[in-house]
Amino acid sequence: MAMSTRATAAKAAVDVVATYFSRMQVVASDPDALVFAFGNPHEMALPGLPAAIRAHAEPRSVDWYAYKSSERSAQEVVAGALSGELGLDFEPDDIAMTQGAFGAMSLAFALLADAGDEVVIPVPGWFCYPPMLRAADLVPVGVELAPVTFDLDVDAIARAITPRTRIVVVNSPANPTGRVYPPSTWEALAAALEEASRAHGRRIWLMSDEPYRRIRFDGVEFTSPAAFYPWTVIDYSYGKVLLAPGARLGYLALSPLIPISDRQELRAALFPLGLAIGWGFPDAVMQYSLPELETLSIDMAELTRKRDRMYGALTDAGYELTRPEGTFYLWGKAPGGDAEAFCAALEDRGVYVMPGSLFDQPHQFRISLTATMTMIDRAIPHLVEVAAHRDPPR
């Protein structure tokens, strides 16, 4: 075998997603296709994004395009904004600038876990957790969310923890379900992780995956678990709030509640590990642009209209959907109970939604609301008609 064991395991964990992604790229080239698969833009970028990049593309010094790690100015912007947003006193040294949330998570895994360690992840959850962990020689341990509500099941997480558990991953607002977890959930989880850390004589870390933190509906409030459990790191990506996933900019933040001696040790490792994982820092121009980008956001009023239009039409047609509190997805049961067959029937009509099998949920499906309202209006009759011809699940 030419590949390493971990490469083989990572490939196996992501093959279905990679195949689907490649197919959707081809489909997206058809102007008549109604693609609701990934959170990709279907309209031109926010004007402020290219404007900020243009403003900072012209060099202002001879080292403008020299090697850059975490630019101090970018760290200061993030620390200030994050402190105001989460009510915690982040310092610039707590921030590592990364290539989106992917880079932040890779850095966290390298920073906190050893080969063979177990990492607890939510199910359903983001489909790239398992392959990323396999590629890092770590072991993903899936824990089911509560049925129907998709609440975080703290008791199930506690039962899944073993002496090899090093990290628990949480995601709020959650992809694909759209749930935003309340402070009571974080209080219970913090107590469970503290108890398990004492029982196993080994600190269990919490990684809070927060790329959708600013995309919330109906005034739903957001609280980070970093406010309840000191041993927390936060990953974030600007690609969601800017609806520009190809503009790679994010960060890993150390909770300021981590004891200072441990935090100083972690801070000292951020640059060397950022280098070691493959120069995981954002491009210089993206970091220079951060003061402007930090203030930009997709139109939440328009996104809310899209959610309400699609959610209302489909629930009126008998769909069972989770009303999202955040993210830009709808998550629900596939009419007939077979997501692959349901999605195939839609594809025959030129409508593409994501089967839940990519999330290990063969009876569910996901719709991205980043489409245009025109696309939504064109797709709804097909979604209604396909559902009407599906047999109910047995």
From TrEMBL:
PROSITE patterns on file: AA_TRANSFER_CLASS_1
Domain of life (superkingdom): Bacteria
GO molecular function: transaminase activity
Keywords: Aminotransferase, Transferase
SUPFAM superfamilies membership: PLP-dependent transferases (SSF53383)
InterPro entries noted in UniProt: Aminotransferase_I/II_large (IPR004839), NHTrfase_class1_PyrdxlP-BS (IPR004838), PyrdxlP-dep_Trfase (IPR015424), PyrdxlP-dep_Trfase_major (IPR015421)
Organism in which the protein naturally occurs: Microbacterium ureisolvens
Record family assignment: Belongs to the class-I pyridoxal-phosphate-dependent aminotransferase family.
Pfam families on file: Aminotran_1_2 (PF00155)
E.C. number(s) listed in UniProt: 2.6.1.-
Domain Aminotransferase class I/classII large stretches: 72-380
Protein name: Aminotransferase
Cofactor dependence: pyridoxal 5'-phosphate
CDD domains found in the cross-reference section: AAT_like
Enzyme class: transferase
